[in-house]
C-alpha cells in the first residue's frame, strides 16, 4: 500500500529521534545489524549526515551519509512501506549526495543487500551501478 504524493520535508536527525529511527528501520524491513542501536546512532549524529524525511510530522524515511576523506558512503536508506513511491527515497539520496559533495566526495558508494531486489532496482534507477570489480569483506569485532 502506498500513499498519494504527500508533501514531505527532509531534516537532520536529532537525538530525540533516535528511538523512532530504530523503529522505522524495523518497519521498513531493513536487515538488523550489530550497529543498529541507540548508542551507535547517537555517535553517528556528530560524525555523519543522518537525514530524516517527515510527512506531516511523521517520520517516514532515513539515510546516513558519511565521507571518510576518500569516498562518500550511503547507509540505511529506508522508507516506511506506506510512503514508498512518491519520491522520498530519491530526495533523501539527492540531499545526502549534495552534502557529501560539499564535504569533498567525488564518488559515493551505496551499500545494498543482494536479497533486496527492490533496493537494487531503486539504486540503479537513480544512477548507481554495481561495481563488479570489488567485493565487500566484513569482520565483526567482538569486545
Description:
- By secondary structure, this protein is α+β, with helices and mostly antiparallel strands.
- It has one domain: Gcn5-related N-acetyltransferase (GNAT) (Aminopeptidase).
- Helices cover 30% and strands 22% of the residues.
- The protein has 4 helices and 5 strands.
- The chain has a 5-stranded mixed β-sheet, with helices on both faces.
- Strand 4, helix 3 and strand 5 form a beta-alpha-beta unit.
- The longest helix is centred in the last third of the chain and has 16 residues.
- It is globular.
- The model has no long low-confidence stretch (mean pLDDT 89).
List the helices and strands and how they pair.
Blueprint: E1 9-12, H1 18-27, H2 38-45, E2 49-55, E3 58-67, E4 72-79, H3 88-103, E5 108-110, H4 117-125
Parallel strand pairs: 4-5
Antiparallel strand pairs: 1-2, 2-3, 3-4
Amino acid at each position: 500500500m502506498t500513499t498519494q504524493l504527500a508533501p514531505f520535508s527532509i531534516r537532520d536527525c536529532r537525538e530525540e529521534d533516535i528511538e523512532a529511527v530504530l523503529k522505522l528501520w524495523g518497519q521498513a524491513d531493513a536487515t538488523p545489524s550489530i550497529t543498529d542501536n541507540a548508542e551507535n546512532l547517537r555517535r553517528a549524529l556528530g560524525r555523519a549526515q543522518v537525514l530524516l524525511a517527515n510527512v506531516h510530522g511523521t517520520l517516514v524515511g532515513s539515510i546516513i551519509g558519511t565521507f571518510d576523506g576518500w569516498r562518500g558512503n550511503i547507509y540505511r536508506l529506508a522508507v516506511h512501506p506506506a510512503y514508498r513511491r512518491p519520491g522520498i527515497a530519491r530526495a533523501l539520496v539527492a540531499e545526502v549526495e549534495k552534502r557529501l559533495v560539499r564535504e569533498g566526495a567525488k564518488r559515493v558508494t551505496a551499500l545494498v543487500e543482494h536479497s533486496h531486489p527492490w533496493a537494487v532496482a531503486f539504486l540503479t534507477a537513480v544512477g548507481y551501478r554495481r561495481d563488479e570489480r570489488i567485493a565487500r569483506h566484513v569482520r565483526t569485532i567482538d569486545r
